[in-house]
Amino acid sequence: MGVVELDVDFVQEQDVLSRLRGAFAAPDYEPPLLPTAALTLLELVRNPNSSSRDVLSVLEHDPFIAGRILRAAQSPVYGAMTPVRSLEQGIMRLGMATMTEIFFHVSVSSRVFRAKGYERAMDALRNHSVAVAHVSRLVCRATALPDEYAFLCGLLHDVGIAASLIVLADVRPPKRPLPLADVEKPVFEVHADASAIVCSTWKLPPDVCLVVQHHHHPRVGGKVHPMAAAIGLAEQLCFAKGFGIAGEQLI
Question: How far is CA 110 from CA 5, 208, 209, in A?
Fold first, then answer.
């Protein structure tokens, strides 16, 4: 009867998986950038000899995040009874650990969870990651685990999903990113390893990389990694309360 051509692209999940694995394994892979100030601030918090003056010098180079620090310092959550009139006062009120959390939260949200064509998915992922970050800290405070990295690990545990969607969104017009329904499974399959690669490329502490890589399967070397298990528990609690991406699905 003749030939009919359909203007439809049939997506093979294996092809998507190969593209993602190839991108993350490439020697020249570059993850979405974090401001140098965020990594510098993390190092300052880990250094017992750091002072508020050191932190102030970092914040002065990022007016946007400095403004968020000041806004947070005014919040009743941090015991704000009097107005904060300077960055130095904000630093003293919040403390260095809290400031690092805010800094990374703002940095990641503004730079990482962005991929044209997957805006809805990225919004859901960002909300989920922030919820898991806060719950992770609470879970650790209810145990003997130190919560130094709990918020950071929770915030970054699914950063591999964001990185994967950024890779898949990188297409030249007139092509458009593949439908989310067609890429969900391969993205989920690679996301834990991708999270570890992104965190390693950012030169975050090795234990953070290990935790994000194993938050779904917390056994490392035959033993349960306590922080990875805590992040996994926090994620399940978020699912149960409706904060997140049910079953790791983004649609």
Answer: 43, 21, 21
CB 95 within 8 A of CB 65: no
- Side-chain half-sphere exposure of 100, counting CA atoms within 13 A: 20
**pLDDT surpasses 70 at 154:** yes
Are 66 and 87 a contacting pair, CB within 8 Å? yes
Residue written as tokens 């932190």? 55
Residue with tokens 């010098």: 57
Q: How many CB atoms lie within 10 A of CB 54?
A: 16
Q: Is 122 in contact with 165 (CB distance < 8 Å)?
A: yes
Q: Tell me the C-alpha distance between 86 and 217, whole Å.
A: 45
- Kindly state the tokens that stand for 52: 């508020």
Give ∠ CA 165-25-236 in degrees, rounded to 5. 50
CB atoms within 10 A of CB 144: 6
DSSP, res 11? P
Q: What is the pLDDT of residues 188-234, one digit of tens each?
A: 999 999 999 999 998 888 999 999 999 999 999 899 999 999 999 99
* pLDDT tens-place string over residues 70-106: 777 777 666 555 677 777 777 777 777 777 787 788 7
